[in-house]
Amino acid sequence: MAWNFRSLRFLRRRMTIAAPKMSVRTHVPWYLRALFWIVVLSVSIAGAAWVYDAGRKIAGFDSTEVQQELATLRTRTAQMTEENARLKASQNSADSNIAIERTTQKRMAEQVHTLEAENARLKEDVALFEGMVSTDRKEGNFAINGFKVEIDGQMLKYRMLLTRGARTGSIMGGNQEPEFAGKLVFEVTPAPAAGGTNGAMIRLPVADDPAAQATQVKFRYFQRAEGSLTLPPGVRPKQVLVRLLEGNALKASETAVPADAKS
Predict the structure, then answer these.
(1) Domain range annotation of the chain
(2) Is the whole-model pTM more than 0.70?
(3) pLDDT tens column, 232-241
(4) Domain 136-261 classified CATH 2.40.280?
């Protein structure tokens, strides 16, 4: 009896107005809810990006134009770099050609100078040989022709042509002149010193000069003699006298003024 009374009271609470409130909700799967929020977030981000780009365009800054301009500048930079490399290669090639041409011109100028000097010497020799066969030349006489000297630092450079008058028919005939053996001796007159006094005569070559061997001559009718002798320190020749000796006998002599001492 007591149990029935309690059951009635329980049912009364549940079924009458005094029962607890109930809420009815529609059941939605979780993956649909997740998809919904993903769509919402995507739309929000896209809208925010659109608003950001629109704001930059309104402010005068367009990222698309900037990217295009940047690509254009990069292309121009690459082209200019390539053009610069090509111009540098052309310049290096031109510099090499100029250097080669300058070297060639320098060599040609040296060769022309050498040929001109040789031509002048040959002309002198021709004139001297013409004088050797002249009819008024005395037989057996020695001569020093074309004697020239120049100063190069402490060196005295000289050149000359030694000749000997031949008897008629002795050059081409069988009765030739005997071979002459002698030596050249130079006497240098120094230029006035700073105090106004003249120095003593200097005789060259000195005994220990290695060039002394070149002053020994041996010829039958003519011989070219050239070489260089060492001057004493501080000596500047004013005049140079050369003597052709056979033993101690004087055969010929000639005087010359150094090229850089002429006034």
Answers:
(1) 89-132, 136-261
(2) no
(3) 888 889 999 9
(4) no
